[in-house]
Amino acid sequence: MSLAWFRFYEELNDFLPSAKRKKLIPYEFTGNPSVKDAIEAQGIPHVEVDLILVNSLSKDFLYKIQDGDSVSVYPVFESIDISAVTRLRKKPLRNLKFITDVHLGKLTKYLRLCGFDTYYRPDCSDNEIITIALIDKRIILTRDKELLKNKQITHGYWIRSQFPDEQLKELMIRFDLKNLVSLFNRCMECNGVLTFVSKEEITERLLPKTRQYYQNFKKCPDCNRIYWDGSHYNRMKVHIENILKGSQL
Questions:
Q1: What's the pLDDT tens digit per position in 10-53?
Q2: Which residue in 115, 81, 113, 80 sits closest to 97, CA to CA?
Q3: Residue-wise over 118-149: b if at least 16 C-beta within 10 A, else e?
Q4: What pLDDT sits at residue 87?
Q5: How many Å apart are CA 138 and CA 188, to the nearest integer?
Q6: pLDDT of 84
Q7: For the stretch 209-247, what's the b/e string if a residue is b when 16 or more beta carbons lie within 10 angstroms of its beta carbon?
Q8: What is the pLDDT of residue 80?
């Protein structure tokens, strides 16, 4: 039986039992496991990892751990330049597009309201989510830790909070999104990009008071929904702006 020592940093500790957080962890092994296998055996999905130092030297996922190794594991650096060391994936996805699992319907609407391209289907299987993410270069957002351990996945994030407001705040901080927000430019229901439409073109679809008091409208070209800046719009705007204020670092 061989022994290596692991230390996980920052939010990677969220995946560990409290007794193992922020401290050296002994890892016993036989044979020649890769450092990737050793990391995932301890509950950390590989997509959450972006830097591995073994005995202070940068290594990739294929490195075979040796008896006595000291392994430091760091989370994905979205805003920090670590180009001088062995980054475990290509550059972070800056043209950010997301795909969410069945547990994140409310978060999906929040992301779309903020202008982020977010694919969601409540009947989407794990395999479909992975396939769509790879083809469309989307970041997988999930509450399922096991999903992110699939070796095909290159970009993903485990949502820590159970509550939609906190989930949005978490993503704003995690992916540094606050300067990319563009409110009310995407359909919250189907993800289509909204376009301006003249009042005359849709007047027959409007309720009398809406027709009387509002002049500016947008339409989703995909599902044909109509949006305007009524009282619901203003309530949602204030709500999202308060969440964004809470995500300031």
A1: 889 999 999 999 999 999 999 999 999 999 999 999 989 989 99
A2: 115
A3: bbbeeebeeeebbebbeeeebbbbbbbeebbb
A4: 52
A5: 18
A6: 55
A7: ebeeeeeebbbbeeeeeebbeeeeeeebeeebeebbeeb
A8: 47
The model's pTM is 0.72
With a CB cutoff of 8 Å and minimum separation 6, the contacts of 134 are 152, 153, 154
Instruction: Report the distance separating Cα 55 and Cα 127, nearest Å.
Output: 37
Give the three-state DSSP class for 21: coil
Phi, psi of 57 (to 5 degrees): -110, 140
Q: Is 192 helix (H, G, I), strand (E, B) or coil?
A: coil
Domain spanning 2-75: CATH superfamily: Beta-grasp domain (3.10.20.30)
Assess whether pLDDT exceeds 60 at residue 90: no
CA distances for 231 relative to 98, 197, 228, angstroms: 29, 19, 9
Residue 79 has pLDDT above 60, yes or no: no
**Domain assignments of the chain as residue spans, ordered by start:** 2-75, 97-168
